[in-house]
Amino acid sequence: AAKAGGEPVRAYMPSMGQIFLRRFQLVTQFRHAVETGQVKVHYQPKVALPSRNVLGVEALVRWTHPEYGDLHPDEFVPAIEAAGLVGALTGFVMEQALTKVRKWLDKGLRISAAVNISVRSLAEQDFPEQVSDLLTRYGVPPELLTLELTESGVMADPQKALPVLRRLHALGVVLAVDDFGTGYSSLAYLRQLPVDEVKIDKSFVFGMGTDLSDLAVVRSIVELGHSLGLSVVAEGVEEDVARDQLSAMGCDVIQGYLISRPLSESRLEAWLQARTT
Ligand code: C2E
Ligand code: CA
Ligand code: CA
Ligand code: CA
């Protein structure tokens, strides 16, 4: 059961059998769910510091399941990935996001979209061509598309990921390392990756107001990022204090509930309207 539009309600602990059945159902139902509009993309704004101008939005998938209610990606993306269906998910999210960017361009707004990319997509040899074809089809300049790759995903098999990252970078799309600080990257590795942006993991940002070691991690990522010429983004900004600390450190972009929660398409349009007029 779930509240309409709210967080899923966990009333009981499901058994292993129930968990397995549910994962199986989600995988088999996914394509149909996309085709029938159960799967939607929400968008969370990213704003520049200190101006607070809206630079872009991150596309975050949502699934309103007829039986299980509103599902967050953590509840179904891993199963979709394991089943080899992530290409369908990425393609859907990217087309939705590029449609929005194109519409904004037609209204004279330059707002970029960031799409989360599963490490499995980097294993597809033709992934860069798929991205390039979509940019052409939607008439979107590559610099208005950001691809967010998790640090752990890229580091799991850098030899495999690197050539694909180079080809994506050559297209001119923006490459971001997501969840930075949670994995094992050394400074040396980050230098070798053809990336443009680091996103500080929200676990450090949540703690930075109260925990000195979180604050130190955030500060060192901002400095490291800047010394490598990267744009630094902080996610999970919930409080004024965090925003002010990040601003003082010179962090370039922030994202989080303080600015806005992820919004449906129509609510995002209303939010943008209120912001820009
Ligand atoms: P992520 O890429 O790290 O996305 C940020 C997550 O943090 C989102 O959760 C967002 O709603 C949440 N968030 C943003 N600001 C705040 C804040 O201020 N406070 C708190 N507490 N949370 C905040 P969400 O939407 O549940 O997504 C979870 C993860 O699912 C994402 O983590 C991403 O790894 C994955 N994901 C989402 N959409 C897609 C997709 O289209 N494809 C793939 N492959 N993965 C996706
Ligand atoms: Ca992300
Ligand atoms: Ca993240
Ligand atoms: Ca994450």
Automatic annotation (TrEMBL):
<feature type="domain" description="EAL">
    <location>
        <begin position="23"/>
        <end position="276"/>
    </location>
</feature>
<protein>
    <submittedName>
        <fullName>Diguanylate phosphodiesterase</fullName>
    </submittedName>
</protein>
